[in-house]
Design goal:
The chain contains 17 helices and 3 strands. It is mainly α. Strands 1-2-3 form a 3-stranded antiparallel sheet. A hairpin with a 2-residue loop joins strand 1 and strand 2. Helix 5 crosses helix 7.
Length: 354
């Protein structure tokens, strides 16, 4: 406005017009520079010289991603492995948007995800990471909020078509014969103990590997594992010790050098104790001809299936394995089945011969 006032106040000759155009061009360059990236003048010069050099700047900036990572890890307390996966997925989306000169829209996210050779479940995990970032940025980043407050969340309301002809690698349960075969084929005592405890507790591999001597408690006069380091809120629970496990547990207590029942060779970068034994189990089952649909978690599925086959009530099973029942009455108000009821259920299992 000031530029127009400056020149409108006088009659303009050719020299004035040239000067006016020069000043106007400088102003426009400054505005383009602000809109693209106020910290990279060299990039602006390249774009002004050759517009094809322009790469769309997505709101997934590195400072925002770093802030999101810190918030997820240190404020919300999300486990490191999950945070790393979320940030990795967001960085890949950021790179794609910039390479394709694309804005962060619902349509462009579909364009990004559709050709990826992932399952629908994995694609939904990409969306979950984006959705978490979007909500974080709206709450914590005033500039982002101002720019996107009128925009619908582009990570929501996506539908992916299932390829009905594709085979899914769903986790399958082992049969009793499978479990015995695995147990007998193991040449590693620690791995054998892990398989036995998985078969008779239905616990997750990391839950078993985190059990300490102090986690063996007596409830109603019954020896139990107290599982408190679990994956979910409902994971904290009491699991009676099956009679087949008692001599194993007695030996593990006697041999323990660090208070943990199951000795391991080390932890991975996320602090998981089960990493090395998990890999050993993977090699064992593969050597016996079991495919990717069979994992250590398959023992948990077997445990639940076998209890169901033995007519154990669903609420009792959920209490033993640490699942929600889906009913407020039991999840909120009930203390759950007693240790004696759980022991009766677990004692119906006859999986491994000692």
């Amino acid at each position: 406005a000031l530029l127009f006032k400056k020149y409108r106040a006088r009659e303009m000759d050719v020299a004035d017009w040239v000067e006016f155009q020069k000043e106007l061009t400088d102003i426009l360059k400054t505005e383009v520079f602000k809109g693209i990236n106020p910290t990279n003048p060299n990039e602006v010069k390249k774009i002004l010289k050759d517009p094809s050099e322009y790469r769309s700047k997505s709101p997934l900036t590195l400072p925002r991603l770093n802030g999101f990572e810190d918030y997820q890890r240190n404020t919300k307390g999300i486990v490191n492995k999950t945070v790393d996966m979320q940030v990795s997925r967001l960085r890949k989306l950021k790179a794609w948007l910039e390479e394709n000169k694309a804005d962060l829209t619902h349509e462009n996210i579909e364009r990004y995800l559709d050709p990826l050779p992932f399952s629908v479940k994995t694609k939904k995990q990409h969306l979950f990471a984006g959705n978490s970032f979007w909500k974080y940025a709206l709450r914590k980043d005033s500039q982002f909020k101002e720019q996107h407050k009128e925009q619908a969340n582009p990570f929501e309301k996506h539908n992916f078509e299932e390829n009905r002809g594709a085979k899914k690698n769903e986790r399958k349960a082992f049969t009793v014969e499978d479990i015995r075969r695995l147990y007998e084929a193991s040449k590693n005592q620690n791995l054998s103990d892990l398989i036995a405890m998985g078969a008779y507790t239905g616990a997750r591999i990391e839950e078993i590997c985190r059990l300490k001597i102090d986690d063996i408690v007596r409830e109603d006069g019954i020896d139990c594992f107290y599982i408190k380091d679990g994956k979910t809120e409902n994971a904290e629970r009491i699991v009676p010790i099956h009679k087949t496990l008692k001599p194993i547990v007695k030996r593990l207590i006697k041999d323990s050098e660090d208070q943990f029942l199951i000795p391991v060779s080390g932890r991975n970068k996320y602090g998981n104790r089960s990493d090395s034994l998990g890999k050993q189990f993977g090699r064992l089952k593969k050597s016996l001809g079991y495919g990717p649909e069979f994992v250590f978690h398959s023992l948990r599925k077997s445990f639940i299936t076998l209890l169901q086959n033995n007519d154990v009530p669903g609420l009792t099973i959920a209490s033993i394995v640490g699942h929600e029942t889906g009913t407020i009455t039991f999840d909120v108000y009930s203390a759950g089945p007693s240790a004696r009821q759980k022991l009766k259920a677990i004692s119906s299992l006859k999986v491994i011969h000692q």
